Amino acid sequence: MNNNQKNVMNKIYKFYLLLWTVVTLTACSGMTDTIDEHFKKGEIIYIAKSDSAFTYAGDKRFLLEFWISDPRASAMYVYWNMKQDSVIISIPEGYDTSVPFRSYIGRNEKTVEEGAYVLNLVTHDQFGNLSVTDEYTANVYGDAFANSLLSKIIVSSLYETDGSIMRINWGGAYSAAEYGIKLTYKTLDGEEVALFYTTEELKEETVLENVDIQTPVMYTTLFLPEPTAIDTFYTAPKKIDIISRVNVVLNKPATWSDENAANQGGNMAIDGDQTTASRWVSNDSHNAHWLEVDLLDFYAINGFGMWRDQSNATQKMKQFRLQAWLDDQWVDVVSEDDNIITPYTMEFESVTTNKVRLYIPPYTDNRTRLCEIEVYSTITY
Question: Do the beta carbons of residue 246 and residue 277 sit within 8 Å?
């Protein structure tokens, strides 16, 4: 290639280089326009959101627990109800981030209606910088839940005069939210007693001692809407009907047909001693023998018990009648003609009377050797 040709090629190269530079500069103009706008606004600074958070259901409130992961955090903004409700939780400067921050939301500072909510949590610092939004759920309970609660069912509540003992048997839990019961009563000494039993403990019979049944025995049923709930719901206090089976003939005035000796009268059969040390022994006449007891009041009687001395092989009192004074006459309520079971007990349809009589009809070897009789009335206090 001669010199002229080299000069032409150099000119062509310079022309294309110039053309490429112009095109490139023209094409790049305006590419930084958007970036420039952001730089004009300044740098956006985000702080870290909470490390984790938990919510605990309550009565018209909930508890929020969260861990602060950024020491710059000065406040937690909490939004719920589609961001129509909110609270600001202030975080003290220098708060120990290893310890969870706990805040109750509801009641005094902000009413929270009953319902299930989605929470939006945003952490702020003192300069207005904030974290990305974190989302959690919270349940709140109130009057609707409280009004749906029922007192625990009592299957039976029996009172034993011997020892002033009360025995209560409970029905099963009708709701998984049932937590237990609170029970209150007074002792015979005037002491006020308050006891708590879990629902699990109520599967067994509850036994109360030294109970004064002249004052009410009350109970309240407790509910936790969720196992981790911060508030307990209570039913209204309810009185327990105390059912007592009373021996209405015990030490009451009595008359009897006859006796074998002065210390073997009919009154010995209603003194509370069921052993042979205290017994009514009649004569050996084979005539009818009877023991009549004045109850001193009207009672609805529905049960009978008898303890006999059966040491004599032939005189076992196999025939007897328990009679009640009804419409001015003696009426059989229990009748046996060939019974040697001891002790003997029998339930019968309730009758109301103020006098009862044990009658042994005339028959061979009908001599009475009676340790004790009891006639029962079920009384509700």
Answer: no
